[in-house]
Description:
single chain, alpha+beta, 21 strands
Amino acid sequence: MPPPAPHRLPTLTTLLTAASRHPPCRTLRPRPAPSSPSPRRLTTPASKIGQPTPDTHPHLLKPGEVTRGIQGTEYAARRARLVSGLPDGSVVVVAGYGLRYATQGIFYPFHQNTDLFYLCGVNEPDCALVLEKTTGAGYKMILFVKPTDAHRVVWDGPRAGLEGAVGFFGATEARSIDTFQSYLTTLTSPTATRPVYTDLPLHGPAESILNNTAKPDPSTTSYAFPPRASTPHPKPNIHPLAPHLTPHRLLKSRAETALLTTASTITSSAFKAMMRETPLPNTAESDLWALAEYTARRAGASGLAYVPVVAGGVNSLTIHYVVNDQRLRQGDLVLVDAGAEYASYCADVTRTWPTSGVFTAPQRQLYEAVLRVQKQCVAKCTVESRTSLDAIQRECWDALRVEVQKVLGRAVGVREMNTLYPHHVGHYLGLDVHDTFSVSRSTPLQAGMVLTIEPGLYIPDTAAYPPGLRGVGVRIEDDVLVGGREEGWAAVVLSGGAPKEVRDVEDCVRGVL
């Protein structure tokens, strides 16, 4: 899916009196910090921690895995790589998300802060991760979580609790989340000297946009560093974490690549199912949406990674069309942009196909123009190409301009071209659909990057264009692993199972593929 314009990240509310409102809570300190802590298997009843474990879900997790497909040793290595690039004595602070509410007492499905998930795998609300670096790659890992509460277990199910934070997630120390705000305060005290790396704001407004209830539930409230009064003391030694963490997230491990491949494979199966469904009488955009969700979940995904675009006919001219409530018309094209989320890793694929099972001549001409450019751009996704997403975008824009001029039989100026092709060719992909958003797309491609390649052409529904092309939008998007030595220096298309050649698309819609 083409990324939207850059937006401001959620601002987190300051809770200066949080500690005073709660009774003292115990802290679990089971052992001194090792250089590279690794999680230990829980053998107590607390092994039910609110998310799958190898004990409770052996059909999903293998021994040693903290989350599906990712070993505890890999999480520990991620933390060690991060702190090894920071000064001795540094403190890394990452706050998780709380529940978001649609209305009083009705919450949305929980989605974790992906930075926190990347570093420890905890997938429950109301938690925070702190890494206190010692020397080299050594650190002390503190997890702030909600302590086990028998009353809340009846309503919400089990949580990791203090015991699970240490025993399963490998924390050196576990503390109640109620003490997190007071911990932040110590990091900004006049006598504090340790450098702090975090993406929390230095202070927050009166209300949190993460909490949309009429009467705030304390469990959804988030945190910020307290504002400091004007004093002769130096400012807090606080630095952004993203520049240090996102380069690690940008380059995927073999385990991450395997999960992204599975997400893309599941997505490809969903596209085949949608194509076959399209010719049925009275098929609506919402039918394809439902089928994509159903197919993804039946194949093991947690669902779709984002609200899909299912755009029939002229609706395809809206890049982020997500209303998905019109009936499909015979003779139109339908553009679908959808991706499965598997083990928290996201796919992002787009295909365009004829509702009747056969492209008209003008539709096919436009489709093949986009397909040629898409293949050219995919082929550039290698280390040896010495290129970047921005460089591919420039080549893509030029190539699409040449192609559309052939289709229209006339010259196309810069302004018109920006209307016909208004978005970027791609973005990085991973735990987020628009992954590592702070990394410039001018960054040279490196082995291990996974990204999307998604050129498109969108012909306005006006008399300035041939009747057979008016209101026709075509986008073709694949998930691509940047090829390095292990891939034979060739780009690897993870979503290749979704038909995109003209004959394959037509055959699939007609049910013969």
